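Sat 14:20. Reprocessing the chain from the morning session after the first attempt stalled halfway. Input below, unchanged.
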Amino acid sequence: MRTTRSLAVVLLVIVGAVSALVAPPAQAAPPISTPSVSTQIRADAARAGVSIGVWARDLRTGRVIASVGADRRFPVLSMSKVYLAAAVLDAARHGRLSLTARVPVRASDIVANSPETGKHVGGSMTYPEIAVAALHLSDNTAANLMFTAIGGPRGMTAFARSAGDPATLMVRTETSLNTAFPGDIRDTTVPQAWATGLRAVMVGTRLDPRDRTTLVGWMRGTRTSDKRFRADLPTGWTTADKTGTGDYGSANDAGILIGPGGQRILLVVQTRSARDIPDAAAADAVIARVAARVARAG
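Finished this time. Tokens:
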């Protein structure tokens, strides 16, 4: 899909404007106390032929555990469903929609990978049911129903800014947002910026505490993380996270690693084929290894 010349100019201006905001001032950044983790991650990605962006921070101490390509742009993919669900909860909290309203599900709404909404064609679902379908099963029609509720991609971009994320730029809905064309900045973010937004909605003050608890609970129920964050974690660890998968081997996972001793590590991992192979496989093993390394370092 081609953008117009004017859209390309606007998007490039946006990227230039946000790039300075993504990296915090040098004096404000905590020291990266375990550079070996970042070195190991780079080596893992190089061996697998994967371009990678990682940002990992211990939420209890503030220590940055790993930073690799954390200011580079990668496709958002289905990580977008976290912001969508958070924005729906926030809209309901402020009276802009009702969580108990029945949302019609029409045959014309259904797009690829819609395992739950596809069962409700001709019927309806509530927004909590829609959000759970999106976060547990990565249901794409559920995502589009939430896009409609919050004002489309522009509404999601605005929500990202309100959560302190200066870089995320949404232009399309499911499933076209997953094309991940090389050099295309539509529907992209950078790991550190996405981590800032996640922190705001999962443990910070962007959402009402009740909605924050609801969102994290939904994310703990994900069923798409077993080959990524949850695949190789140390015994007793689990996650509240959201994956994403697209073309050109693009694959993500982002959320909080939760340890048995109260550990809480915010982790964002974004990957794509280093050689821009359109049908490259998702780097599940690389993402799993990053999560394991980060958890053990924390």
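The two ends are 42 Å apart (CA to CA).
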